[in-house]
Amino acid sequence: MQVVSISSLKGGVGKTSVTTGLASAALAAGIPTLVVDLDPHADASTALGVQPDDQLDIGRMLKSPRRAKLAENVVTSSWVARENYNGAKPAVLDVAVGSAYTGIYDRPDLGRRDLRRLSAVLAGTDKYQLILVDCPPSLNGLTRMAWSASDKVALVAEPGLFSVAGTERTMRAIQLFRQEFAPNLSPAGIIANRVRSGSSEHAFRLAEMQSMFGELLLTPHIPEQANWQQIQGAAHSVHHWPGDSAKNAASMFNTLLDNLLASNGSDPAGALRERSLR
User: Fold this and answer.
1) Under a CB-based contact definition with an 8 Å cutoff, are residues 185 and 153 in contact?
2) Rounded to the nearest 5 degrees, what angle is found at the Cα of 141, between the Cα atoms of 50 and 38?
3) Alpha-carbon distance values, 35 to 94, 95, 166, 178, 212 (Å)
């Protein structure tokens, strides 16, 4: 089982879209997957079409992690019905549902015990091969809690000045977090999202990211897609949305998931190049 946090310290870069795209690819590949919606906005839960009954949301599971009983409180994504109908083998895509309640932990002063809360919730589960944690766009308690429970961190960035600068800061934050709390944590790589092929600024920033981060910049880069909000609003997986653009996006997420899971990580400090951002 691999636990991968999907992170960004800058909002609006499409982090949740990348999380759901990777979940869609995992579902299509038959990889038993759990999505932990740790963002208080709970957008991933909405996009995954979950309808909880009496299950505890992830915030309330974090409140009493030793008694959380994860298996009893996850909710199956509505995407699974389509995949099981069309697919050759039963599919598994569960969701630890997000809620605003998690916001009580999104503080900068969480101690070591609190940082282990998500690890305790996930402890003992053997149903999944992949756990994707959708983090809030900050470096407060929830993101650090996710990193404590993860094997890898995947960063999402747009090819823009502020996003690239934020990614550099996040890489340094991962390095410091490894030293103090999680020596086995590694950066899975950086996912360039919402890339406009005709933009000279985006081309320049992608080249800059390649220079700064080297092999940590994963491929393929995900292009800006006009119908992505429509796909998420309909609570559909990109792999089951009609049209050539959705098929192309699904193929990209298949490749990106393969590259993400195959990444071995490296020392973030060694990946950074000392240079100024223009």
Assistant:
1) yes
2) 10
3) 6, 5, 24, 23, 30
Residue tagged 């081309």 (tokens): 203
Residues 212 and 168: beta-carbon distance below 8 Å: yes
Contact 152, 2 (CB under 8 A): yes
- Rounded to an integer, what distance in angstroms lies between the CA atom of residue 60 and that of residue 64? 7
Element containing residue 35 per DSSP (H, E) = strand 33-37
For residues 30 and 180, what is the distance between their CA atoms, to the nearest angstrom?
36
CA distances (Å), origin 277, targets 154, 165, 234: 22, 7, 39
**pTM, full prediction:** 0.91
Which amino acid does the sequence have at 133? Answer: V
Q: Are 155 and 10 in contact (CB under 8 A)?
A: no
Cβ neighbours of residue 153 under 8 Å, at least 6 residues apart?
4, 5, 7, 147, 174, 185, 186, 187, 188
Return the residue matching tokens 């996912």: 191
What is the residue-level pLDDT of the chain in tens, covering all 278 positions?
Answer: 899 999 988 788 889 999 999 999 999 999 999 999 999 999 999 999 998 888 999 999 999 998 999 999 999 999 997 776 555 567 899 999 999 999 999 998 889 999 999 999 999 899 999 999 999 988 899 999 999 999 999 999 999 988 888 898 889 999 999 999 999 999 999 999 999 988 999 999 999 999 999 999 999 999 998 888 899 889 999 999 999 999 999 999 999 999 998 876 544 444 433 333 33
- Residue 144 structure tokens: 């650090």
